[in-house]
Design brief:
Bound molecules: NADP nicotinamide-adenine-dinucleotide phosphate
CATH class of the largest domain: Alpha Beta
Strand order of the largest sheet: 3-2-1-4-5-6-7-8
Shape: elongated
Helix content: 40-55%
Low-confidence stretches: 1-10
Strand content: 5-15%
Oligomer: single chain
Number of strands: 8
Length: 279
């Protein structure tokens, strides 16, 4: 079977060209994890910051000028960017592929912390049989045992194979698009929505002039508020702007499931305020 017929059947070749959009902390780790099995791992330089270029260089990824150049070369694209940008990135890729035979379009993994509806929007642009819904639980992985990449969708098992023996433990959640994203949204309610309440509690007590009394009461109940705030701050200080987008997507997930979405909407607002963003 030639590489082209392999691709037209939705199959990756033996040494696929993989593109990472974009090599942030997680994208650089995912790109690096794929180097062993990919022919080459590329990234798109256009519009990205010096920090992204530096991370890509350290991860030994190959630069191409822009998203269009990347989309035209790739057999597989991994979208790993701020959640609010996920659909826009897929639109850029779809626009770049209009002059490529649809049978040769790449597989596309949306590995962002987005709602299932966002993944279905990506599939409308790029084709359900080419899209894999992905979600990472754990930090950017440079060694095994810390992070799991969950995958769902028709070509999920094939993509999982590329990560064999890599620092990312990869698990397939079935063929239905949205399953991995729903899992991530549920997890994020625990990891990001719940901790946001500490920020609201602290600010409310300060505004009401009852901080000291509250600290006393919480301490009596075995809760150390400054410690909770310090823990959250060390995790979120540079990421709150991105967590706001993730909480918006988690809220959309809850709403789609017919559940109250207020926890995650409030968390989104809290992280937006905290990061000083006005968006
Ligand atoms: N880091 C983690 O611990 C972790 C864990 C699980 C899942 N994730 C998921 O991984 C994804 C990326 O996280 P990360 O930690 O890699 O973030 P990051 O380090 O902030 O990197 C984000 C990357 O996306 C690019 N970017 C920024 N704004 C963009 C926009 N509007 N459109 C397109 N690209 C844009 C950035 O490029 P420039 O800055 O150069 O513009 C950067 O290369 C998120 O969906 C997140 O939920 C992260």
């Amino acid at each position: 079977m030639t590489e082209m017929t392999e691709r037209s059947g939705g199959r990756l070749g033996r040494r696929p060209v993989v593109g990472v959009l974009h090599p942030g902390a997680m994208g650089a780790a995912l790109g690096s994890a794929l180097k062993a099995r990919a022919g080459v791992v590329i990234w798109a330089d256009g519009g990205r910051s010096h920090a992204t270029a530096k991370r890509a260089e350290l991860a030994d990824l190959i630069a191409v000028p822009d998203v269009a150049a990347l989309a035209r070369r790739c057999d597989l694209i991994i979208s790993i960017c701020p959640p609010h940008a996920a659909l826009g990135v897929a639109e850029e890729v779809a626009a770049a592929l209009t002059d490529r035979d649809p049978d040769e379009w790449p597989l596309y993994v949306d590995a962002n912390a987005v709602a299932p509806a966002t993944v279905r929007g990506v599939a409308e642009l790029l084709g359900t049989r080419r899209v894999v819904d992905g979600a990472v639980i754990g930090p950017p992985a440079w060694e095994r045992g810390h992070s799991v990449l969950w995958l769902a969708g028709e070509p999920a098992a094939e993509v999982a194979g590329l990560f064999a023996d890599s620092p990312f433990d990869t698990r397939v959640l079935g063929t239905e698009l949205g399953a991995a994203s729903a899992l991530k949204a549920c997890y994020a309610l625990q990891s990001k929505a719940l901790p946001a309440i500490w920020l609201e509690i602290a600010e409310a007590a300060e505004k009401a002039g009852v901080s000291e009394a509250l600290h006393g009461e919480l301490t009596r109940g075995g809760i150390d508020l400054p410690e909770q705030l310090a823990k959250l701050s060390s995790r979120a200080s540079t990421k709150a702007w991105r967590w706001a987008g993730e909480m918006d997507e988690a809220a959309d997930t809850m709403a789609e499931l017919g559940l109250p979405d207020g926890f995650s909407r409030a968390a989104a607002e809290i992280y937006r305020r905290w990061s000083g963003s006005t968006s």
